[in-house]
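Final report, Chapter 2: Outcomes

The project's central promise was a pipeline that accepts a single protein chain and returns its three-dimensional structure in a standardized token representation, suitable for archiving and comparison. That pipeline is now operational. To close this chapter, we reproduce one record exactly as it appears in the project archive, with the input sequence first and the structure output second.
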Amino acid sequence: MQLSVRAGAANLDALANFLIERGSPGVVLKKDSVQAYFLKSAASPSLRREVRRFIDALARLSPRRRKATLAWKVVKQEQWQDSWKRFIKPRRVGITFWVTPPWLKPPKFRRRMVITIEPGMAFGTGTHATTRGCMEFIEAARDRLGAGEFSALDVGTGSGILAIVLALLGARPIYAVDNDPLALQVARENLRANGIAAKVHLSGAALGALRRRFELVVANLTAEAILQLAGALEKKVAGKGFLILSGILHHQAGAVAARFAASFRLRQRKRSREWVTLLLQRK
């Protein structure tokens, strides 16, 4: 079964996560809609009711936003199994990278490095505005840090894409942490596919358990999670080091920036539609 939902942009990520948790093997995020695929079964009517209840709950939480509309249709099995893959294309990010799924070859471009990511049940394929913002600001921070290696920490690594970026840009050592066992499994596979598994310390360790500080810390989370972890994030950034924060909705960016203003200077701010990424440097 194919489900198409048109909704406000601020609700799309929550909706996509919900559909994946309900067993969708492929979710396609567009500008103002989500498409998901499910195996048709005896439980299908129950699934439809759960989706309807979730969408109604989102509407109650954000009554001023556009009302979501949804449509179901049945497609042939040979179509739904792989049809989502046609939406995943090689993508240029920043001035340095091609991000590509493993079943496609990236276009030949000698000046760009290739990152291979298996789209799976962990966030970060290079297509989302927050991931792109982080990748671009990692490049900017690397340039500000100057030549040579720099230590780095990726908080909430998800698919591991930002840890891969850090490795390709010369970071050593690199620590990547996530509290989701599934994300760690996906990240480990992606690190291995890109030939850098030995360069990244990947673990489920709590942020406070890490004893060292880093020249660059990146956290692509949510505004709520960033504010909750703010004290621990501050402690992990070395003197004059950089902190990249993303997963922040536009209306939340001011509060996040203000929380770090006492210890950090705002060096760059990037907005892509409703999402904001911040590049901060310790004073």
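Archive annotation: The chain is about 35% helix and 30% strand.
This record, like all others produced under the grant, will remain available to the consortium after the project formally closes.
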